[in-house]
């Protein structure tokens, strides 16, 4: 499982001209599910997302957790994170098929919600437009 986590001032996802999910300060998470991923990996990734201490404390150091910062999460599925670019036309055979990916994507969302976070999402498989105002910028790749 691969998550690209960007600290944002705000972010939104729009589908067919309508805003599907929108957050203020928090994390925009682009989440890719590998064909061999498991529930254990999904829980581990959710734990890392919810525990990343990358918000600034009173000294300006990245030392504050998302919960303590009042962060919100926008989690968007992104199978292209597993692109094989050995040729100029990417292949996506390492990305999980929807029957595997959707339950694991939903598990990550559920795990984050169970930790008290407000979580907004895109729509799995939809053509989405994602907008964000990066904060920092701070972007971290979580790979499990």
Summarize the structure.
24% of the residues lie in helices and 40% in strands.
Description:
This protein has 144 residues and is an alpha/beta fold. The protein has one domain (2-143): D-tyrosyl-tRNA(Tyr) deacylase (D-tyrosyl-trna(Tyr) Deacylase, Chain: A). Helices cover 24% and strands 40% of the residues. It contains three helices and eight strands. It has helices at residues 39-51, 66-69, 98-114, and strands at 2-15, 18-23, 26-32, 55-56, 62-64, 72-77, 119-121, 128-143. The strands form two sheets. Strands 1, 2, 3, 6, 7 and 8 form a six-stranded mixed beta sheet that branches. A hairpin with a 2-residue loop joins β1 (2-15) and β2 (18-23). α1 runs parallel beside α3.
* Helix content class: 10-25%
Structural class given helices, strands, pairing? Answer: alpha/beta
What would CATH call the homologous superfamily? D-tyrosyl-tRNA(Tyr) deacylase
Main beta-sheet strand count, sense and barrel state: 6 strands, mixed
- Coarse morphology: globular
What is the strand content? 35-45%
SSE ordering: EEEHEEHEHEE
Q: Radius of gyration, rounded?
A: 15 Å
Number of strands: 8
- The CATH class is identified as Alpha Beta
Q: Which spans of ≥5 residues are poorly predicted at pLDDT below 50?
A: none
Task: Give the CATH topology.
Answer: D-tyrosyl-trna(Tyr) Deacylase, Chain: A
> Mean of residue pLDDT?
97
Annotation field: number of helices: 3
Quickly give the CATH architecture.
3-Layer(bba) Sandwich
